[in-house]
Each structure stands twice: as structure tokens, then as C-alpha cells.
Design goal:
Helices cover 28% and strands 28% of the residues. It has helices spanning 3-16, 21-57, 98-108, 122-130, 155-170, 322-330, 337-345, 404-418; strands at 67-72, 84-85, 111-117, 136-141, 143-153, 186-193, 206-210, 219-220, 222-226, 228-234, 240-241, 248-253, 262-266, 271-277, 280-285, 292-298, 314-315, 353-362, 388-396, 422-428. The strands form 5 sheets. Strands 7-4-5-6-3-8 form a 6-stranded antiparallel sheet. A hairpin with a 1-residue loop joins strand 4 and strand 5. Helix 1 (3-16) packs antiparallel against helix 2. The longest helix has 37 residues, at 21-57.
Length: 429
């Protein structure tokens, strides 16, 4: 029971204790019209003050929330209000001939014939990529031909993560690790050799791969999705010269898409600042003339009741409260195990992996169970040699056992940003 309900209960008890009817009515009217109204006004004023203090501390840490998921191609709704394919070409069914394969083999030494999803533990994924022997393929182009194949991590989706990171940096937005476990389980099946007798003008009509004991892990036609949408938007009116006589302010209308979303702007000539004002984006940079801009909308909102996802949608959501904002504003370091536990619990992943403990130990060069999700962020200042290892222990709890080490990798990647002086890793116990 909150304070307001407790106060109302006390008043009701007091009213019941008054035997005189007229006095009871007078007291009730006084409480209703004066005391409770004053009390509610004080509560509203306090909430407004609290909100104002919160807003003054730091921006909403979850405004640039990124959601990632995975669906079958046949279930992908391109009109979805929130999620869209990370790579638009995934929705197209490719058509090519044997000559296209030979051309790519000559240029790059391999040809990507398909992208598959590997729903297994991160350690098993590591083994699948390591053990390439015995993988064989059959290509149907008029006749069936045996082809040499290999399985490698799909770089297309990881490149999207890296591009998003650079967008955040260009727009002056603090980076938060993207919780994208499925992207590290996407693999490209590449043809590395094709028989000479296959005719160049034959269209490829089918392909099949044999991966031995790993066949049960290879799932075709799975599409990674997220809540990021690439837009091409034009400047409104003419750019206005800034006082420094070097930069110009451009206005971009976002009326058709909504002011409730977050936006990032990309420009090769450089961006000094991006501000959102209502239904407009104000971009300051060295571009002198009006143009079309590459704008990336991070869509906000919640799922509809009829939405269906094959696997759980993951978020890089963090608990947003006074302590978190004050810590961010003050640049306060996480120094104790209790503070570290609170930081980790702020991601709300206890239904999957639960923090147990952490230890500081000498780095013996052993390969860790977890992997860095911010693989594109290189520490170019600190020497990695001689670093101690901060090992975080997690208790596995979720039913999706094959996802747990990936979620532990997400958490440890965020912890790594707190402790750049250590090599951070995780372990399930």
C-alpha cells in the first residue's frame, strides 16, 4: 500500500469514529476538499521536481535502445511498425548462373551460396567454424555437381554493428553494447571450387550442403531483424551559415516518421552536431548546399499483441533510475562487487544468466568461454600485455541453454568498458 492509500485509510477510520452525522459530513468535506487536494498537489509537485532533476542529470539512457531478433523468411512482415531486416537483400531470392560463381571464385576465391543460422552454444559454434573437414556440397545446375565448400562467420551483419557504432560516435551519442547474440551464430556457406564440366550459362536451381554431425544445427532462411531503419531525407529550405563561417545548419523534417523515435545522421563531410527539435532534425556541418541525407531511425515503441517472433527479441536495455543517472553524470567508477552486481542486474537478464561472483586473476592466455561483442573497438592506448583477467561467474537459468554464453558475452562486453585495465570474460558455473 502506498502513502496515498495509507492516508485515505486513516481518514476513513477517523470518519467512522465520529458519531455525530453533521460533524462527520463537515470533516469529510474538509478532508476531501482541502487536505487530500493539498496532499495530492504536493505529491504532483514532488514528482515534477523529481522528473526535472532526472532530466537535468543526463539524457534518457534508453532513448537509443536497440532491439535485435531472428525470424524465418516466410514470417517476415516488411510492414512491421518496429522491426525490419538488417540486410534488405535477405528478402530477395537470388538468381544466378554458374558463370556468376566462376567470376566470384576468380575475383575473391569463394562464392557465398547461402547464409544459415546455427542454434547451438557459443563453444559449439566455435568448433563448427574450426572443423571444416568433411563439409561437402551438391550444386544443381542442369545436372548435379559436387562442389567444395566451407562455413565461415557471416560478416555482413557484424559490419552493420560496426557501422552503427561509428554512427553513434559521429553523432556524439555514448555507445552501449548491442545485445545481438544471433548475429554471432549466422554463417555463410561458401563455394570454393566447382567442376569444369558445369556449363557457364546454366542457372543454379538448388544447393545442398552436408556438414556431418553438425547438420542438425544448420537452419536455412533465417533473417536477423532490428529496429533500425535507413532513410533518405532531403533538407528543408536553405542551409543557414553559422557564426564561425565554416559550418552550416540544415533542417530535416521527420514529420512523416514521428518525433518519438531517435535519429542518427551520416555525412562524409563531417557533422558537428545533430539536435532534434520536435518534428525537425537540426544538423550542423560543413555541407554548404541542401542535399539528401542518410538518416537512421531507431524506432521506439512496443510490440503488438499479434506479433510473432521465432526466438526471443533481445535489447540493450538498462535500468533507468536516479542512481544510474547520477552515476553517469558524475562519472562515478564502479569499485565494489556490490556496485558491479547492481550494474549487471540493471540489464534485467536474470531469467537467462544470473551474476554469482567475480575474481581477479593472472591472464594465462587461455581461451575464454565468452567473446567480445564490441570486437571493432580497439584499445589503441593501453598495452594489452600483462593485463590481469577479471572473470565473472554466471549461473545459467534460462531454458534457451544455447543462448546463455552469448548473453554472458553481452554483459562482459559492457563490463569491459568499465574496466579497460583488465581483460574481462565470463564463465557459466
Amino acid at each position: 500500500m502506498d502513502q496515498m492509500e495509507e492516508m485515505k485509510a486513516m481518514i476513513r477510520e477517523e470518519i467512522q469514529s465520529i458519531s455525530d452525522l453533521k460533524e462527520r459530513i463537515t470533516f469529510k468535506n474538509l478532508m476531501e476538499g482541502v487536505f487530500l487536494e493539498l496532499y495530492e498537489t504536493n505529491i504532483r509537485m514532488y514528482q515534477m521536481l523529481e522528473e526535472r532533476v532526472m532530466n537535468d542529470l543526463v539524457y534518457d539512457i534508453n532513448r537509443y535502445l536497440i532491439r535485435t531478433g531472428l525470424v524465418e523468411r516466410s514470417y517476415m512482415d516488411q510492414s512491421h511498425h518496429l522491426m525490419s531486416p538488417m540486410c534488405g537483400e535477405d528478402m530477395d531470392i537470388p538468381v544466378y548462373e554458374v558463370s556468376d560463381i566462376r567470376k566470384k571464385l576468380k575475383e575473391e576465391g569463394k562464392f557465398r551460396i547461402a547464409t544459415v543460422f546455427l542454434p547451438c552454444d557459443a563453444l559449439e559454434v566455435r568448433e563448427i567454424f574450426k572443423n571444416q573437414e568433411g563439409y561437402t556440397g551438391i550444386l544443381k545446375a542442369g545436372k548435379e555437381y559436387p562442389v567444395e565448400i566451407l562455413l565461415e562467420p557471416s560478416k555482413r551483419y557484424l559490419d552493420k554493428l560496426e557501422h552503427l557504432y561509428h554512427l553513434f560516435m559521429k553523432n556524439g551519442i555514448p555507445w552501449k553494447t548491442i545485445n545481438a547474440p544471433y548475429l554471432f551464430k549466422m554463417a555463410d556457406i561458401c563455394i570454393t571450387g566447382i567442376p569444369d564440366e558445369a556449363a557457364d550459362d546454366e542457372p543454379v536451381t538448388n544447393f545442398g550442403g552436408d556438414f556431418g554431425e553438425y547438420n542438425r544445427f544448420v537452419h536455412y532462411d533465417m533473417i536477423p531483424i532490428w529496429n533500425v531503419w535507413h532513410l533518405k531525407l532531403e533538407s528543408v529550405g536553405f542551409p543557414v551559415a553559422c557564426r564561425d563561417h565554416e559550418n552550416y545548419e540544415h533542417v530535416i523534417s521527420i514529420r512523416d516518421y514521428g518525433s518519438g523515435h531517435a535519429y542518427l545522421v551520416e555525412e562524409k563531410a563531417g557533422i558537428r552536431s545533430v539536435r532534434q527539435s520536435g518534428e525537425k532534425l537540426l544538423v550542423t556541418g560543413k555541407v554548404e548546399s541542401a542535399k539528401k541525407w542518410d538518416v537512421y531511425m531507431i524506432r521506439g515503441g512496443s510490440d503488438n499483441k499479434i506479433d510473432r517472433y521465432t526466438y526471443p527479441v533481445m535489447e540493450n536495455l538498462r535500468k533507468d533510475g536516479f542512481a544510474e543517472r547520477f552515476q553517469g553524470k558524475a562519472g562515478q567508477m564502479v569499485k565494489t562487487k556490490g556496485e558491479l552486481e547492481r550494474f549487471i542486474r540493471g540489464f534485467g537478464l536474470e531469467d537467462y544468466v544470473e551474476y554469482q561472483d567475480c575474481v581477479l586473476e593472472e591472464d594465462k592466455g587461455e581461451q575464454q568461454e565468452t567473446y567480445p561483442m564490441n570486437f571493432f573497438m580497439e584499445d589503441e592506448i593501453r598495452d594489452r600485455k600483462g593485463k590481469k583477467r577479471l572473470l565473472i561467474y554466471f549461473k545459467p537459468k534460462g531454458k534457451e541453454r544455447w543462448l546463455l554464453r552469448d548473453l554472458a558475452s553481452f554483459v562482459t562486453s559492457e563490463v569491459q568498458e568499465l574496466y579497460p585495465e583488465y581483460e574481462c570474460g565470463g564463465k557459466l558455473v
